[in-house]
Write a structure and sequence with these properties.
Layout (H helix, E strand, L loop, with lengths): L6 E4 L5 E4 L9 E3 L3 H6 L4 H22 L11
Antiparallel strand pairs: 1-2, 2-3
């Protein structure tokens, strides 16, 4: 059974990823910043990625509270 905990890690190529700590392989989510964005953020891209992931998790939780029986596929606009 997969862990209910998630971890945010920085991969060797500099991308920030979200994964279950007990799983290897492809992460659940990857955030990649361009070199221009990294420079603009003055190297604080990991902190920004953490906030982005946190906001996404909050919205996902709200969506699941509103309709826990959502279809597997949704149209994105």
């Amino acid at each position: 059974m997969p862990s209910s905990f998630l971890e945010i890690i920085e991969l060797a190529d500099g991308t920030v990823a979200l994964r279950r700590p007990d799983e290897e392989g492809k992460p659940l989510l990857v955030i990649e910043f361009s070199e221009e964005a990294r420079e603009f953020l003055q190297g604080n891209y990991v902190e920004v990625a953490k906030v982005m992931i946190g906001a996404g998790m909050q919205v996902a939780g709200q969506i699941m509270e509103e309709d826990p029986d959502l279809d597997e596929y949704r149209v994105l606009h």
